[in-house]
Amino acid sequence: MRDRLHLIEADLFTIDGLRIRPELCIHLAWYVEPSRYLTAPVNLDYLAATLKLARWLAANGCRRMVGVGTCFEYAESQEALREDSPTRPGSLYAASKLAAANVLQQFCPTASMEFAWPRLFYQYGPMEDPRRLVPTIINGVLRQQRVELTTGEQVRDFLYVADVASALVHVAESSMTGIVNIGSGQPTTVRNIAETIGEILGGTQYLGFGLRPMSAGEPMCIVADNSRLWDQTGWRPEFDLVAGLRQTVEWWKNNR
Fold it and tell me: Taking 70 as the threshold, does the pLDDT of residue 121 lie above it?
């Protein structure tokens, strides 16, 4: 597959000079530096660039645009989140994503361009930023250092990155439009994720539950209802949580 790829480097903020006519665009570019991205003013720049990209795509004959949103667009709920669940973004990042989705759902049909907006839940896997949860736990245990964690009661929906990619491809190649959730649909706790990693590495003694306070305003439950994705594309994940974490642990062992 790689020998068939033609790489064209471009800058999202200066796309006007690009001389291509794409049939399909999967737009994933955004600022997501851990601990900073939720409140960073640059979110407004990416919102503006996304809308500009859509106009450029339409002007160059693109027939389908797939943007990438976030589960943080939804209001907090103890139930699995559906595509029609209420939205209530609690950060500039989530508000900017939701604004992009709302505008593009109105603009794209007027430009004869299909538009889909997959909302990603939690992802993990090789090459993840080491400051994020899963690599923090893995690397701490590998170093035989105490990993400071909350009590771990938060319920989350984690999906291995290869399955996230395959789900995006399924959406891109389908005729689906509008919002579509991409997640495992399987709730798990942060504690279970940490304990699974500890068991894989034989280092559960390094997990320091309760040593770190819960972040202010942190939602206790974020889980996807992914039935629309399953029903309309036939997509199924290849990796369950344990298999995905094993793959991730092996990558970090070889790339510390």
Answer: yes
How do residues 203-239 score in pLDDT, each as one tens digit?
Answer: 999 999 999 999 888 899 999 999 999 999 999 999 9
pLDDT of 92 reads 98
Output the CA torsion sign for 135, 151, 181, 33.
negative
Q: Quote the distance between the C-alpha of residue 3 and its chain's center.
A: 27
CA distance 52 to 25: 13
15 assigned to some structural domain: no
Identity of residue 100: A
Only one residue has tokens 């006519």, namely 21
Query: What does the pLDDT look like over 54-103, one tens digit per residue?
Result: 999 999 999 999 999 999 999 999 999 999 999 999 999 999 999 999 99
In a domain, 8, yes or no: no
Please check whether residue 13 lies inside any domain of the structure: no
Angstrom distance (rounded) from CA 32 to CA 52: 20
Amino acid residing at 103: V
Q: Of 204, 32, 197, 203, nearest to 120 (Cα)?
A: 32
Distance from C-alpha of 66 to C-alpha of 229, rounded to nearest angstrom: 14
Three-state SS at 29:
coil
CATH number, domain of 193, equals 3.40.50.720
Q: Does residue 6 lie in a domain region? A: no
Q: Which domain holds residue 160?
A: 21-254
Residue 98 per-residue DSSP state: H
pTM, two decimal places: 0.94
Number of domains in the chain: 1
Q: Which residue, 178, 167, 172, 180, is CA-closest to 64?
A: 172
